[in-house]
Protein 1
Amino acid sequence: MFRTPVISDIRLAAQSLREGRLVAFPTETVYGLGAHAENEFAVARVFEAKERPHFDPLIVHIPSLGYLDYLVTEVSPVALRLAEAFWPGPLTILFPKREAVPDLVTSGLPSVGIRIPDHPVALALLNEAGVAIAAPSANRFGCLSPTTAEHVVEQLDGRIDWILDGGPCRVGVESTVVRPLGDTVELLRPGGVSVEQLEAVLGQRVVIAERVTPPNQPGLSPGTLDSHYAPKAQLLLDAMRLPPRNAEQGVGWLALRDRPAAAQPGDPVELLSATGQLAEAAAGFFAALRRLDAAGVRWIVAELFPEEGLGRALNDRLRRGSAPRHL
Ligand code: TXA
Ligand code: MG
């Protein structure tokens, strides 16, 4: 069986991307599964490798603002302001797309989500490749996002051409996705840039988008599917919902700082930050859920975070991870 090599050679990775191959690479948020954004065959392989439905569009990564003109028809003042404030960084902005962006990338939507990642390896790769790179998170659809090269191996080994190793991701949750709306923006997915940070730059309240069900409504963000980011164990947000316990069906616990009162001796417990820092919690979030899965528990009980800053993005992932699975 083909095993995907894990490499650190940025030149080789860039050359492969240009030639239409699939390369997983690190960003500051999570690892992405990259493909030459204008190569439809390569983009189609991304959907196949992830088992991702075609209604879920991909984010396009660029190395500098100069690439925008080539990909989009218009950059509104609000979009420019946010790009200047947060790029490189974990903010994806929707723009009306040019024809150069294949419909496959945007799932037929008229707008394309674009960001400049804030990671030295990602930026070097993009500069060396000299092309825009479409990249969803490098996981199988609906599963936990990868924050190390090893996580990518676990889900995509043998399905993609290279994995570029750049160590663990600093932010740990995906980018915030926004759509410009007049002189503010609509929040389609909470992520690494907080609502508070956006509002400070805009001087306006951000509009929070409705959650989308069913997923394929034109103009809305399909990544807001209810069930997403799910561990293998059943995730619960309330210990009261645990069924009566028995020896075969273990329970794991995820919390910010304090050991949950209902945890029993011997239960695996993941505490994300001894000092209660949300940034530290985000950086370790997906890896902690993976460790609980690896411990073989049937249930994971997670405590919601304070609904502020990165806590909003983490709670979003917990709520989706605990939603009934419909895919
Ligand atoms: O941090 C991140 O955003 C990572 C790294 C690799 O950049 N990427 C990522 O991609 O999380 P993905 O595919 O797992 O999530 C992208 C989500 C889509 O599910 C969708 O909600 C939204 O971004 N999105 C992308 N393009 C869109 C578009 N044209 N219209 C509406 N939503 C879009
Ligand atoms: Mg994803």
Protein 2
Amino acid sequence: MSKINTLLIANRGEIACRVMRTAKEQGIKTIAVYSDADELAPHVKMADDAVRIGPAPVNESYLIIDNIIQAAKDTGADAIHPGYGFLSENAAFSQACADAGIIFVGPPEKAIDVMGDKARSKRAMIEAGVPCVPGYQDEDQSDDTLITEAGKIGVPLMVKAAAGGGGRGMRLVHDLEEVPNAIKLARSEAENAFGNGELILEKAIIKPRHVELQVFADSHGNCIHLGERDCSVQRRHQKVIEEAPCPVMTPELREQMGKAAVDAAKAVDYVGAGTIEFLLDQSGEFYFLEMNTRLQVEHPVTEEITGLDLVALQLKVASGDFLGLEQSDVTLSGHAMEIRLYAEDPADDFLPSTGHIDLWKPSSLSRVDSGIETGGEVSPFYDSMVAKIITHGATRDEARRRMIKALSETALFGPKTNRDFLVDALDKPDFVEGQATTAFIAENYGEDGVDLGEQAFSTYAIAAVLQHKLQQKSAHHLALNVNHEMLDWSNNRSLETVVQYGDDQTIQVHVDAPQQYTVTEGEQRVSVKLLSLKPDMAKLNVDGHNVIVIYHAHHRTLHLALPARSLTVTDQVGVSAMEDIGGGGTVVAPMHGQLLEILVEAGASVSKGDKLAVLEAMKMQHEILAEIDGTVEMIAASAGTQIAADDLIMEIVEKESEEA
Ligand code: MV4
């Protein structure tokens, strides 16, 4: 019998949704917590109940231990799952749960504490016989001692903050003469960042792979590993692609690393899901780096190759049950890959990109763990990772090809994303051959910004054809029910449309026959046939080749996702035309929110600037005003309901003008 009837998830986004999925499958009641920025977020909608824990900034909401414990008490939660990040590796939080009589779905306080310090964890690992990078990790922090020890280790040398982690507070030293200065700088950085200036020294391993072992332990002394993950493809210590198994793993090496990982977990009386991070060098030697005492972002690749549900196992051992698995029960089958979709701009040094989500269309063929939805927001307050795609195949190349295919049919429109960069990286020879090390991104793309090259003219041509078509459709939409194939045969319409992107790109769309166009810009010329047009997908033939695109149009802006490239264009010419067509008369919600009031009735006549409705979103009231003079023809939404961005609120028919 499970001791967990109600589970509070002290997190947001994809991981909160992921944890809730398993909890629901097990009939456990789920409680979400949310900040003001997340009132309408998917994780809140998915939960059985939800509790507000503060304003948008994390240190006023998701990091406030007292608020979360109070939310658990108020909702009768008997357990808390911390997800990753936030309070997941906070020993005080684990202790606060224990003090309140609430099960913390994670390890005991002591394991979090020891593993949170590089010096203490390394000493514990050396004692347990786990291979560590040769170095110095003792308590004497005098300059003399550190400099002497650095001399013994030699260069290249890593100076690391004991309290750091995930690459923070780390310096590489190439010359022993730099050591005194490196120590001084690293110590002061560490004091500032972590309030603890303690340092460790290590021989630097050049171009290692990041290979981590998943371990699982119950409270009865059982501990096993679930194989490894290779997370070498990282950018500034942010993982980008993860996979399991590691491409260069052998059964013998797995057995050695697995034993080291289990020894590491046992040395700190570990309980629950944990990850032991190792560096694997070019010669096949491996070294303990650190232990992550939480469920990790990349846990799905382990789930795919083991067939296990790691969240289910976490809940099981947190309830005090036996793991119920022995090492020999764990079999690894096939190969799995995961990509992290970030809302960021690879062309602009990967700067986070935020804002309204015009369309989120995940692939239907693969596992997608996401915490976003169309009409929602990517908030600047939180991590920019918005979704993960996970594929599995009999072989590594099958999983890799499925990932490229899954990405080709995935679109996130609104914020910029790393989608196209991922497709490019998945096809780089080093990655294809399984040779990527931690230097992969720097070697293949340089350290700042990624330029995937100019878009082909044919991509702009597709955009121009779609904009031409969509303008026609919306022009006729309200008045007549014309078969859209007939729209290109209109007597009083020009058979040529001009769209202008930016200041200098003027593209002509000439209608040759229904659904058939010649698109030109200067010397460039492309033939385009529109084969089918669905609300967010179109199939076209471009110069004899079929292509499927995902699109979303909003006023004059068109977002387009081709299999490997995305494009957003705004037509400068269509500005006035589009506004005539219904941009002004079609009143839609500007963002996701609660429609508080509708201030006009059908049949009413309104003037430009009149107040039509009031929408509440992100704790603010937004007045929706008439953009044109006219008559309210119909009202589509009702007051008091939730409404998504772009949902129709009402239609206004423009007042007949004098010359019409
Ligand atoms: C190292 C190393 C080379 N030698 N330690 C970076 C994150 C933190 N977990 C440890 N890191 C490293 N420690 C020694 N002695 C190279 C890295 C490193 C790295 C490790 C894993 C994945 C990506 C990385 C990228 C750069 C550096």
